[in-house]
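Blinded run. Sample ID left blank on purpose so nobody reads anything into the name before looking at the predicted structure. Input follows.
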Amino acid sequence: MMIQRAEISRPAGQSSTVLPRTLQASLVRAGWVCLLGSSLALAAQAQGLKPSSQLNPSRIGQRIPASATSSAPQQADFIVAVVNSEPITNYEVVQRLAIVEQQLSQQGGALPPRSVVTREVLERLINEKAQLQQAKETGIKVDEAAVDLAEQNVARRNQVDVPEFRRRLRAEGMSNERFREDLRQQVTLSRLREREVEGRVKITDQDIDQYIADERSNVDPSRLSLNLAQVLVAVPETATAPQIAALEARARRVLDRARSGDDFAALVQEYSDAPEKVAGGVMGLRPADRYPGLFVDATKDVNVGGVSAVVRSGAGFHVLKVMEKTQAGVPSAVITQSRARHILLRVTPQLSEAAALEKLFEFRRSIQSGKADFATLARENSQDGSATQGGDLGWVNPGTFVPEFEDVMNGLAPGEIAPPLVSRFGVHLIQLMERREAKLTAAEQREVARNFVREKKLDEAYANWAQEVRGRAYVELREPPE
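Blinded prediction complete.
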């Protein structure tokens, strides 16, 4: 079972290098930004270095002996690049490659050449190293409490508790110490990027008008976005042929009932084994290339509201309903709105991040045990404008909140309270109250478009900033030893 890692980093903007779409998506899903392109080669040439596109990758990324798979590189390892004075080893490339290649293989389809994946992974490691060095120089530190919370969030995304999550990590060959260090680095990078990039973005009405016009005239099918709901009838790895046949028949009964008009959400509750069951099976609106290719193929000729044929994957049998199908980036007239409430504690010299986390964990336990009321605690403790409303943030559209807040909120079922979350504003305790489908007014559609423009500009600003960081770094790429 592939562990889903945290998606903490912001995806980069358009790259001038044309990469396989699955490779870009996998690098992003692994929690790492895919920042590539000719600008990196130019930066290397300006320093009199060999761009990695010219570096022979035939021996980089080769696995080293099993005795070297511990947390420290062994004698068989070698340095493939130096960023300022810090090395990147072949061992680090091998670790990152293993994650990316596993995700690529799970997506199905033709895999890009290993040399391509290796070069892109190495570029990512170089950029991360340069940014981590800047974070250290500017005094950004991530304490153990923040790493604990990040680990809890990743475990929660995998529908397990932390001890079980650590057991699965060990089964995949990664030590908990190595994983926590990766988390610490990703949180550090996220905080650095937020601080350096957010202030660069300004949005005008003309930007919004131009964006809407451009997106509505773009008919590129690769820009398709889908919102799918699924019923998954899971098939155990040890299932016999008769058992598999029975499970397939179960999935076909679901399909027949769905096409006969039965409520799909009710079918999800009755039959589905998927983690999205708590959300009615809905997986959320996202670019089509962020769904498995077999899901996209199965629904390409299915209209909104329709149901696909039964789809077989490594996990089992899927029945898919198309909830929404839009051209990516174009505001939809109907969206899913959320109503949540929160308690915000700001980190100050008098209240550390760790203390705020501990306090909110105690609030959560008290609310869940019935000893305290969320609204009352929010009025008495929350440090933002929603405190007077018991923390109620009202009905909001997608993209209203910062990504780290919205990601947690979107993963909740109505009434559920998430573990405390650290954002750029402080530490939050979030409860989802309700969800609904809503038709947007023209003004609200423009606000949704504004959020799309903001995300696009953030991506562009991040790409420019990352190139600046890379350009200031001294990078030496080394040929592998013979």
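Unblinding after everyone has recorded impressions. The CA atoms of residues 31 and 182 lie 10 Å apart.
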